[in-house]
């Protein structure tokens, strides 16, 4: 009986700890509302490569563009048909610097946004959590959203995301906020 109880406690604590490491998602609308209500108490970061932003669109609601992954134009991945994207070695330090510029620390809310939410949004939030940031979330479905499952626009990113939620965006970039190494 004692061994069973210990096994259950170990199993529960492992599951609990794994869950504690996972970043929580916000909808684009929830993020927009947070920015409007508490923008001075949080940091909203677009984690896309700035060239991607230039071609897909941008919202000036962000505080800063700090890429989580940077395109490596010197390494083409033929099997995937794209360039490699490597983790920005300055990502966490640049996010912390942006927090300090707003008078905030690593305990303030940080919300990350990528193109779709899954390949860089959530991983970037969890990366920050692993480095001592305590309140990090990401935008589910990111800036551009997901692809349509059927119809004549099947595969086009016209479902969900910031861009498809009626929230403010444009093709005009704010040079004060766009990442420049």
Task: Report what the structure shows.
The longest helix is centred in the N-terminal third of the chain and has 19 residues. This protein has one domain: Oxidized Rhodanese, domain 1 (3-Layer(aba) Sandwich), CATH 3.40.250.10. The chain has 181 residues and is of the alpha/beta class. Helix content is 32%, strand content 22%. The chain is built from five helices and nine strands, in the order αβαβαβββαβαβββ. It is globular. The strands form three sheets. It has a five-stranded parallel sheet with strand order 1-7-6-2-3. A two-stranded antiparallel ribbon has the order 4-5. It has a two-stranded antiparallel sheet with strand order 8-9. This is Sulfurtransferase. Pfam families: Rhodanese (PF00581). InterPro entries: Rhodanese-like_dom, Rhodanese-like_dom_sf.
Distance from first to last alpha carbon: 60 Å
Strands, count: 9
CATH first level: which class?
Answer: Alpha Beta
Strand portion: 15-25%
CATH T-level topology? Oxidized Rhodanese, domain 1
Q: Residue-averaged pLDDT, rounded?
A: 89
Oligomer: single chain
Structural class based on helices, strands and sheet pairing: alpha/beta
Give unreliable regions as ranges. 1-19
The CATH architecture term is 3-Layer(aba) Sandwich
Pfam family, one: Rhodanese
Signal peptide: 1-20
Organism: Marinobacter vulgaris
Keywords: Signal, Transferase
């Amino acid at each position: 009986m004692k061994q069973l109880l210990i096994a259950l406690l170990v199993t529960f604590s492992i599951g609990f700890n794994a869950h504690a490491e996972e970043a929580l998602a916000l909808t684009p609308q929830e993020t927009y509302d947070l920015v409007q209500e508490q923008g001075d108490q949080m940091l909203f970061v677009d984690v896309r490569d700035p060239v991607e932003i230039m071609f897909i669109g941008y919202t000036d609601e962000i505080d800063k563009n700090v890429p989580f992954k940077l395109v490596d134009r010197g390494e083409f991945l033929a099997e995937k048909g794209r360039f490699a994207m490597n983790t920005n070695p300055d990502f966490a330090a640049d996010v912390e610097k942006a927090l300090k510029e707003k008078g905030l620390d690593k305990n303030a809310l940080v919300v990350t946004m990528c193109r779709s939410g899954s390949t860089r949004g959530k991983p970037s939030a969890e990366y920050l959590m692993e480095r001592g940031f305590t309140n990090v979330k990401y935008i589910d479905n990111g800036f551009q959203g997901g692809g349509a499952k059927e119809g004549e626009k099947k595969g086009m990113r016209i479902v969900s995301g910031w861009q498809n939620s009626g929230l403010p965006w444009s093709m005009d970039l704010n040079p004060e906020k766009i990442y420049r190494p």
